[in-house]
Design a protein that fits this description.
By secondary structure, this protein is mainly α. The protein has 3 helices and 2 strands; from the N terminus they run ααββα. The chain is rod-shaped, with a radius of gyration of 57 Å.
Length: 165
């Protein structure tokens, strides 16, 4: 029980106790003016009845406010759930778009890498053929030099004389 409820309960008990202790005075008929006529009635009971009516009115009003707040909260929760669902769908859509974008980028990069790989293989083939040609030229040059040296050795007359002697 909250502080406000306890406070209202204490006030209600005080009113009930005061009415019980002074029941004779509250029920004593007195002349009461209603504005357009005067009647003989117990003024205390009339005031007590009006207080009870006012309390019942406020209780009904509080229940009405509480139920309207609950209905508004329920409606608000439904709207929030709809918004959450929309946000989840939008997020899923963004994730799908992101996945598609990343797949497209990956495909693009794979194609570029394949092109680069093909170009690299072509260039390596060219370099290999150039190296093979130069190697063959170098082999031919070395063979020609060896052939010339062999010719010189074969053409040179044999000398038996030792130059040190």
């Amino acid at each position: 029980m909250g502080v406000r409820s306890a406070f209202l309960f204490v006030i209600l008990l005080l009113i009930a106790a005061l009415a019980a202790l002074n029941w004779g005075t509250l029920s004593a008929p007195v002349p009461v003016s209603l504005g357009f006529m005067t009647v003989s009635a117990p003024l205390g009971l009339m005031m007590l009845g009006l207080t009870v009516a006012l309390g019942v009115f406020f209780l009904v009003y509080v229940l009405y406010l509480h139920s309207s707040v609950l209905l508004d909260a329920k409606r608000h929760n439904r709207e929030m759930q709809v918004q959450r669902d929309l946000a989840d769908k939008a997020e899923a859509s963004r994730f799908t778009e992101l996945r598609n974008f990343l797949e497209a980028q990956e495909t693009k990069h794979m194609a570029q890498n394949a092109d680069r790989h093909a170009a690299l293989l072509t260039r390596l083939g060219q370099v290999e053929s150039v190296i093979r040609q130069r190697s063959e030229q170098s082999d031919n040059t070395v063979a020609a030099h060896i052939g010339q040296l062999e010719d010189r050795i074969e053409r040179k007359p044999p000398t038996d004389i030792d130059p040190r002697v």
